[in-house]
Amino acid sequence: MKAALASAFALSQIAGVVAHGGVLSYDIAGTTYNGFVPYNTPVGQSSIQRIWNKYDPIQDVTLPILACNDNGLTLDLQKTASVAAGSKVVAFWNTWPHDTGPMLAYLAQCPGSTCTGVDPTTLKWFKIAEAGLISGTVGKGVWAAGQMIAANNSWTITIPSTVPAGNYLLRHETIALHSMPAQNYPECAQIQITGSGNVPPPASILVSFPGAYKQTDPGITIDIYSNAALTQTTYVIPGPPVYPGTGATTTTGPTSTVGSSSSSSSTSRPATTSTTATTTSSAPGATQTKYGQCGGQGWTGPTVCASGSTCTVSNQYYSQCL
Ligand SMILES: *[C@@H]1O[C@H](CO)[C@@H](O)[C@H](O)[C@H]1NC(C)=O
Ligand SMILES: [Cu+2]
Description:
Elements: H1 2-15, E1 23-28, E2 31-34, E3 46-47, E4 77-78, E5 81-84, E6 88-93, E7 103-109, E8 125-131, E9 133-135, E10 142-143, H2 144-150, E11 154-158, E12 166-176, E13 183-194, H3 218-221, E14 249-251, E15 287-288, E16 293-295, E17 304-305, E18 311-315, E19 318-321
Parallel strand pairs: 3-4, 5-13, 8-14, 15-17
Antiparallel strand pairs: 1-2, 1-6, 6-11, 7-8, 7-12, 9-10, 12-13, 16-19, 18-19
This protein binds 2-acetamido-2-deoxy-beta-D-glucopyranose and copper (II) ion.
2-acetamido-2-deoxy-beta-D-glucopyranose (NAG) is lined by residues 25, 92, 152.
């Protein structure tokens, strides 16, 4: 038995699969929710999380399991957490081994009155939080995944207060960049958002999984061991711009030029906020960056787009520099 374990360990060392993982539990507005337990039968398991069977990464972003991992289906004893818009959600990973890469969170509204039974590849997703290269260079910098590890293997996001009430899948993801191709680790949970949010995500930022990423995206192909990485201070987080409503978060490094800034962005990690990040100013006469908000009901920020982009109406609540 001991020998068998030892050789299994040696094999896993050789294969380089010593440790991967995913989100094991959640704290949602102060209530703890267990996740699904991978490597175990779904029979008898009850969780707000969708099924994910193993700790392995996904290294092909065109696979259907990019949506909610393998296999992403609902449990027979599936639960849904009720959460007021504006609440904090803390996701807890296993002892996470990969400190190099971004953290991302998405929502997708389900049709009908529940997400139970809904295929996540049929949904339209929008990004509500992202954090990438926090400081330093691509080769030697501090990444959001490293901050997640430092924070007890947890990452805190806010359900934007402006998200309309309804049933959603909440998709957490970290992308590990220590290997090529990059390793995506998504997990999903079912939540019912309550409140009076009235800012639906503009169609321009809705994506599908798979579909949202390409294997050729710079944030996927990046080589953190290259010579260029030793001086590169920008990392383009994959996926669409962040939802423009209140409470969505973008955390980027001081010199980052991630193209997905949002005028309403703030950070859930004040210690790492940079005043020169790509968040926009609402000072009169300010110019909005490409993909940023430039108009819509209640908008008081800049209405002039940076040269090369044009303010384009998405809906009554949102116009974007495109
Ligand atoms: C650290 O994370 C674990 C879950 O992995 C949680 O049970 C524990 O309360 C956390 N500790 C602190 C201090 O937040
Ligand atoms: Cu791993």
